[in-house]
Write a structure and sequence with these properties.
Helices cover 35% and strands 16% of the residues. The protein is built from nine helices and 14 strands. The mean pLDDT is 97. α2 (50-67) crosses α6 (248-264), α3 runs parallel beside α4 (107-116) and α7 (267-286) packs parallel to α9. The chain folds into two domains: 25-264, Aspartate Aminotransferase, domain 2, CATH 3.40.640.10; 265-366, Aspartate Aminotransferase, domain 1 (Alpha-Beta Complex). It is of the alpha/beta class. It has a seven-stranded mixed beta sheet with strand order 2-10-9-8-5-3-4, with helices on both faces. A three-stranded antiparallel beta sheet has the order 11-12-14. A two-stranded parallel ribbon has the order 1-13. Bound molecules: pyridoxal-5'-phosphate.
Length: 367
């Protein structure tokens, strides 16, 4: 095999920002110049004008359609990346004398816990830290505090390559909060099980910086502090996510990605596609004693696949040789090592086939 790719774009296995759907990038090129025949590009339109209003309203509607979001939930676009949600959520909902429960399943969960502790008590209701975060805690590994305000979890652990296969239980009286940054809309999601969902853009939705928030409307009234304007979800809802000048391009691009998802079918078809893609790699891992997967079988992510060869030197060789034939960004996060192959919604199946093929050839030569 000389090269894995046939166009000027290579296979980008980056975990974030990740690759975007190619038709969306092409459309964005046009709309940057002149959107909807308005004679003005999307970046240059007023956030209160007709063109942007249409972009915003379509994005919200399409998002509602994708996830069957009921009317008693608000769809918001906020700023500061998912990392801002790590503190904004507890600042809004967690009083100093109350407790929130957090699953500690990796680096992003750990960041959320760190930020949560600024505002109230944090109880770790389940963790796999002792096992290098190689699985999702379940059953006897999970224990909730007495009356948590909410239960926070990270549905997909971008760095570890693990994912919740289904949402965790949530004790009576608490609401479920999910950092869904790296697997949102990769499979069906039952929004009614949640109080609050957030997802940074740059994994499955669009550009970095813009964050999608789906929040149950009654919770908007449950802020325990007087919030600064820019951090006030209720104000964002009232002002249609444009209290100040919003990241209009981020909202536009998320809107285009929503349209692309709808063109693929629904979240069931998205899931089938992602299972097929990840399955190509997992089947190589499962039939090999040369490669070792970081995640245990029952906790595997469909988005970020983490694995190693038999030595660090071979890992380096793997990454270099794959890079030389057009497969980029396979180096694992420094905390896990080895390789990480990220295949978000927009990552093409042909890239997964190419990687699977390369893995087999690499094992045959080096195993
Ligand atoms: C990437 C990521 C974040 C951080 O997002 P930023 O936009 O960089 O703040 C948070 N949580 C998860 C699960 C992520 O994958």
């Amino acid at each position: 095999m000389t090269t894995a790719v046939t166009t000027d774009r290579i296979y980008n296995f980056s975990a974030g920002p990740g690759c975007l759907p190619e038709p969306v990038l092409k459309q964005a090129q046009e709309d940057l110049w002149n959107i909807d025949g308005s004679g003005v590009g999307i970046l240059e339109h007023s956030h209160r004008g007709k063109a942007y209003s249409q972009v915003l309203h379509e994005a919200i509607e399409d998002c509602r359609t994708i996830a069957s979001i009921p009317d008693d939930y608000e769809v918001l676009f906020v700023q500061g990346g998912a990392t801002t949600q790590c503190f904004q959520v507890p600042m809004y909902f967690l009083a100093p004398d109350r407790t929130a429960d957090y699953f500690l399943t990796g680096k992003w969960a750990s960041d959320s816990i760190h930020e949560g502790k600024r505002y109230g008590n944090v109880h770790v209701c389940g963790t796999s830290e002792g096992d290098g975060f190689n699985h999702i805690p379940t059953g006897s590994e999970v224990s909730y505090s007495d009356k948590p305000v909410y239960v926070h979890y990270t549905s997909n652990n971008t760095i570890m390559g693990t994912g919740f296969q289904t949402e965790p239980d949530c004790p009576e009286g608490a609401f479920l909060v999910c950092d869904a940054s790296s697997d949102i809309f990769s499979r069906p999601i039952d929004v009614t099980k949640y109080g609050f969902i957030y997802a940074g853009g740059q994994k499955n939705l669009g550009p970095a910086g813009t964050v999608l928030v789906i929040v149950r409307k009654d919770l908007l009234e449950r802020n325990v502090r007087d919030m600064p304007w820019m951090l006030d979800y209720a104000l964002a809802a009232k002002k249609e996510s444009r209290f100040n000048t919003p990241p209009t391009f981020g909202v536009y691009l998320m809107g285009q990605v929503f349209k692309w998802i709808l063109e693929q079918g629904d979240l069931e078809s998205m899931k089938a596609y992602n299972e097929r893609k990840a399955g190509l790699i997992y089947s190589v891992l499962d039939s090999s004693s040369f490669y070792k997967s970081h995640a245990t079988k029952d906790s595997r992510s469909m988005m970020n696949l983490t694995f190693k060869t038999t030595s660090e030197d071979l890992d380096k060789k793997f990454i270099a040789e794959a890079g030389a034939i057009g497969m980029d960004a396979l180096k694992g996060h420094r905390s896990v090592g080895g390789m990480r192959a990220t295949m978000y919604n927009a990552f093409p199946e042909a890239g997964c086939e190419a990687l699977a093929q390369f893995m087999k050839e690499f094992e045959a030569k080096n195993g």
